[in-house]
Design goal:
The chain is of the alpha+beta class. It has helices spanning about 15-25, 80-85, 85-95, 115-125, 180-185, 215-230, 235-250, 260-270, 275-290, and strands at about 30-35, 40, 95-100, 105-110, 130, 135-140, 150, 155-160, 165, 175. The strands form two sheets. Strands 4, 5, 6, 7, 8 and 10 form a six-stranded mixed sheet that branches. The longest helix has 16 residues, at about 215-230. The two termini are about 25 Å apart.
Length: about 290
Amino acid sequence: MTQTTPVRRASGHRPPVLDTALTLATAGVPVLPLRAGKVPFGNCPTCAGNACGGRPNMKTPGPCHCAGVCHAWAAATTDPAVITSPPWQTAWRQAVCVGYHPGGAGLTVVDLDDATAIAWARTALPATRTVETTRGQHWIYRGAMTSRNAVRPGVDVKSLMAYARWLSHGTGAMAPLPDAVRALVKEPAAPRRAPQSLTAPLRGHGGECPHRTPTYLERGIAMAVQRITEARSAVHATVYRTFLAVLSTHGRCGCLTDTHVNRLFTAAQAKGESPRHCTDAWTNALTTLGL
């Protein structure tokens, strides 16, 4: 999350929250408008009750094909065309603050609600970037993981499939996501391993390859590339979940080579992802699957 200064515009133009959102989106942070109470806007009539079928049970990131600010955290996007579209413009005029999808930016927020929670964090977690909130602090780590509320008194973890309120860039250097935070939601700790190399095939666990023909793997990679290429918003989250899907299917049998992985990275970078974001998403997917 690169520190940038929001563009200031004269009064009478677009709302300040929209300028902040566009600045964050440029830095690769997926954003969404939040209304009073720091909550997302409700789904449009087409999407009410998931009638659109676009995001059943909120299991996948990104908005459906409607133009509204729908599906809460899943609506978060870095696409300026979406952010400035008429339905979003209407929402920004009513919004009280900017929300963002931490997991979509490869981040995890430890939300500390009060002084007691802050005191605990100072003894239990490594120091990292700190953002002051109304009652407490957000501690922001580099890396994505499962989200969960009330992991202990006054402490929530917000990353994948969650949103957080944008307050400021904060202070301090951002530390890598520690095992101590993963332990709060009983997520497997990151294995102690060297960074994934793309100069050799990804080796599996010695199991027999379940793919009867190379066509199966090729079709899977082509579909993954297409999914990334067609992403209209929430590109970070789409890339991560696509990497996760590819690895869950092909990551244990030794079929994936550097050629396959580079095709995925190339597609992601064509959508504006940096090499670092690609590597982080790939590593996070490997960690999630225990590869």
